[in-house]
Design goal:
The chain is an alpha+beta fold. The chain contains 5 helices and 3 strands; from the N terminus they run ααβααββα. It has a 3-stranded antiparallel beta sheet with strand order 1-3-2. The longest helix has 22 residues, at 80-101. The relative contact order is 0.13.
């Protein structure tokens, strides 16, 4: 049972990385290509300190990688599962919300 609990802890940590809207916005920005930090800052619209903190969290978790070129630091997504999970959940939530706005009732009960 200890191994199962350890797996659950790791899964919770994995999903915890996705529990912050800023990190989701950063991942969305990086999903298509590698970008320098200043582009992520411009796209997401928050301070460089805030973006750098979140990028560091994602880097330490192995979700993104970074490289330095001159005075710029470039980040890219290295864990394709994160992109797939984010995309799938975002589409699901957006579809559900759109369905509720249109008055379409799902066939599943809550």
């Amino acid at each position: 049972m200890d191994e199962t609990n350890q797996v659950f802890e790791q899964v919770a940590h994995y999903f915890g990385l996705l529990a912050d809207p800023t990190r989701l916005r950063i991942l969305s920005c990086l999903c298509g290509e590698e970008r320098p930090v200043h582009e992520v800052v411009e796209t997401v619209g928050l301070t460089q300190a805030n973006i750098s903190r979140h990028l560091n969290i994602l880097y330490r978790a192995g979700v993104v990688d970074r490289r330095r070129e001159g005075s710029s630091v470039y980040y890219r997504v290295v864990d394709p599962n994160f992109v797939d999970i984010c995309r799938t959940v975002s589409i699901t939530v957006a579809s559900r919300d759109l369905g509720e706005q249109m008055g379409i009732v799902g066939s599943t009960s809550r």
